Amino acid sequence: MSRPSITVRSGHPDFLDLAWEQSIVDWDTPRLLSLPKGISRHEVRFVDYEEGIYVIKELPYKAALNDYRVLRALERLEAPAVTAVGLVEERYGDPGAERSAALITQYVDFSFSYRELLEGAGFGERRRQMLAAFAGLLVELHLAGCFWGDCSLSNVLFKHDAMAIEALMVDAETAQLHPELSAGQRQHDIELMVVNVAGGMADIAASRGVDIDEADICLGEEMARWYEWLWDETTSETIIAANERYRIPERVRQLNDLGFTVDEIDLIPTEEGTKLRLKPNVGPRNHYASRLRQMTGIEASEWQARHLLSDIYHFAASQGGKPASTAGVRAAALVSKKRRGMALAAIRWRTERWEPASRQIREKTDQDNILQAYCDFLNYRFHASNAAGADLGQEVALQSWFDAGCPGFAPEPEAAPHQHNL
Ligand SMILES: Nc1ncnc2c1ncn2[C@@H]1O[C@H](COP(=O)(O)OP(=O)(O)OP(=O)(O)O)[C@@H](O)[C@H]1O
Ligand SMILES: [Mg+2]
Questions:
Q1: What's the gap in Å between 99 CA and the centre of ligand 1?
Q2: Bridge partners (DSSP) listed for residue 87
Q3: Element (H or E) spanning 241, and its range?
Q4: Residues lining ligand 1, CB < 6 A?
Q5: Per residue in 149-187, pLDDT tens?
Q6: Contact 88, 130 (CB under 8 A)
Q7: Where are the domains of the chain?
Q8: Architecture of the domain delimited by 113-233
Q9: Which listed site, 3, 38, 228, 249, has its alpha carbon 20 to 30 Å from 203?
Q10: Residue 87 per-residue DSSP state
């Protein structure tokens, strides 16, 4: 009998208490959790540890190894995918057998697959945003050189991220990483997605007893149009006239609205000298999240981090610190002084604003996602202050938000400009 070998990244359980010599289907450990999930070819189980919830997928060795390697590489490239935590090998004599290996990933809290959403409530008012998030995920993976080969409604997870939607890749069994993808490879991946999505929509219709003609089997094509638009938006070079520079921030904002961060803009004079070439380089989506983590140690998703960082800036401004004098101070020193000031403000923000507010939210409400609830409150404070024509102040605004029943964000009206006709 073969002895399973387990590779686990540090900071996680060793998973040695699980019965790896058995199929995960036969497990009866009290760690098992029953959680919603998408349709899958392989067996998937959720297990609960003190360190968090993990997802175990049983599959043949080759596929598991590819899944693990690609997910690890995507993490290094900061592309949006689930986090691979471990790989279990040699569970069974035959490495081609279904249960010869297992992949362990970190469970993405508060996430659902597109398939589950479409089987249930549907997109509703967030349709455009959901489509943009799905297409945005493919753009990011393609920018990272990842050919997926199996993008489907079950293989894309989403979670609410303040008022944005964050889409994540799950299942990289068929994925391949290249230094760069050709237009043909990208197109092939999109074609596979369109077929998979149509199949998923047809299955959903069938399971509901709805006629196939009524199923939205063109949904994948709509996603493909979003993808094309977003790909052009993030990679194309635009010639703009010198007096049209106002278009630059507008374009950056459009990308930000779709969840992208523009880290760099190259403004290159063209030969005519009157026009500029604009080329936004789209940075990783966790730009603000890493900044927040650096400053406060708080782990938030990208949209939440954007809101929390503006709260820190708001807090720092309300502290009314004296501006640093430039006299006799070299620019670099000034920058580091400013950074230090902001770092101190972030520490005080944490103890004076974030911790008291999160404590109150925990005590006075039944919200289980405290970060999201705090973002809801920040949004409320902004609108209430705006309506009052004055800054309400943290305590007053917080009480008023509790009194109002802790309202969240209104669904975002539109995620992309009308003129693109999407
Ligand atoms: N890390 C995770 N966090 C949350 N849910 C997950 C995670 N991993 C898997 N799931 C859920 O389990 C389902 C199946 O996982 P996965 O797609 O990896 O299995 P599969 O058998 O390879 O699927 P396929 O049939 O597409 O090959 C997903 O659709 C998702 O709902
Ligand atoms: Mg899958």
A1: 16
A2: 7, 103
A3: strand 238-241
A4: 37-38, 40-42, 44, 55, 57, 82, 105-108, 111, 113, 150, 152, 154-155, 157, 170-171, 173
A5: 999 999 999 987 766 788 999 999 999 999 999 999 999
A6: no
A7: 5-107, 113-233, 238-283, 300-323+334-403
A8: Orthogonal Bundle (1.10)
A9: 228
A10: E
